[in-house]
Amino acid sequence: MSAPLHLGGVPEHFNLPWHLAMQHESLADLDLRWTDQPGGTGAMLAGLADGSLDLVSILTEGTVDAIANGLAATIIGVYVDSPLQWGVFVPAHSSITSEAELGDTRIAISRFGSGSHLMAFVLAERLGHTVTDERFVVTGGLDGAREAMGEGRAELFLWDRFMTQRHVESGEFRRVGVQTTPWPSFVFAVRDEVLLGRTAEVGRVVDAIVAEAVALHDRPGVAEELAARYDITEADAAGWLEATTFAPRAAFDPAIGATALDTLRRARGDG
């Protein structure tokens, strides 16, 4: 058996096709090792940089930015072709009931340059607001944002609307809007060393994942499977399936990367 291929992605419904593909008999000769990445894009970029991850499912915008800044990795294709739906959340006890009332709220973000940071900027642009760095509260992820919102250190947070719905239903958050990404949400990224040295193996793995992804909507009982595995309701799973399109095997369009990179640079105020 060949050396291990270390795979990773967020522990969310988007990545069920990876787990299904890893069971393929056609990949039985490969040593595939999946690791959940609750730290999201930042953690996966660090894994690609230090060699602990070889192939990942990762947000488009952060990956484009990291590669532009020297990360030795390549985007080899779009994984999820549809935009990510970011829920716009406030604490349930907040007096804010609509996007029009967001004003100068303090915004929880995972980190500067993260999807939660970037999409808060995209939301502000859409609403005609100016947002400065002083309004952001860095929390490290969803759990940190929940804590910051509960303690009153932040009043606004953007995260995947389906994975966060349970916090709405529990009475912790209220969703006052939805902001979609202006580009496909997830891509396949691979370390350059692995891509160059193990091109055929990477291709086989990606082909298997894409096959499972494009067939996911027709998988019997898939909403129930998603609900049980990822702690979401069947109704939310069905809604996510309806809103999500997986990409067929195709090259990554550089224009997508250029759009995401330009938006990131505006968010940082550096171009």
Task: Set out the fold topology.
Elements: E1 5-9, H1 16-21, E2 32-36, H2 40-50, E3 55-59, H3 60-68, E4 73-80, E5 85-91, E6 107-109, H4 115-127, E7 136-138, H5 142-151, E8 156-160, H6 165-169, E9 173-180, E10 186-191, H7 192-197, H8 199-214, H9 222-230, H10 234-243, H11 254-268
Parallel strand pairs: 1-2, 1-3, 6-7, 6-8
Antiparallel strand pairs: 3-10, 4-10, 5-8, 5-9
Helix pairs in contact: 3-11, 9-10
Short description:
This protein has 11 helices and 10 strands. The chain folds into 2 domains: 5-82 and 184-268, D-Maltodextrin-Binding Protein, domain 2 (3-Layer(aba) Sandwich), CATH 3.40.190.10; 85-180, Periplasmic binding protein-like II (D-Maltodextrin-Binding Protein, domain 2, 3-Layer(aba) Sandwich), CATH 3.40.190.
